[in-house]
Design a protein that fits this description.
The chain is α+β, with helices and mostly antiparallel strands. The chain has one helix at about 40-55, and strands at about 10-15, 25-30, 35-40. The protein is built from one helix and three strands; from the N terminus they run βββα.
């Protein structure tokens, strides 16, 4: 499998949780230049919520 970590050239959101007992990790890079990382299940949930509300496809909501 190739590296799924988002970059400025390949923006996106990547979440990993290798086992039920391991903490989740996440990283996000948006085409607008914003980037963030999180460690721990609660922090990753916040990262995902922020991404969905402010980045990724959220940038296109006003263009419809």
């Amino acid at each position: 499998m190739s590296d799924l970590t988002p970059t400025q050239d390949r923006p996106g959101l990547h979440i990993a949780k290798p086992s039920p007992d391991a903490p989740a990790t996440g990283s996000a890079v948006c085409h607008c230049g914003a980037r963030a990382t999180a460690t721990g299940d609660a922090q990753v949930r916040v990262l995902v919520a922020g991404w969905e509300a402010n980045h990724g496809s959220a940038h296109n909501k006003g263009a419809e």
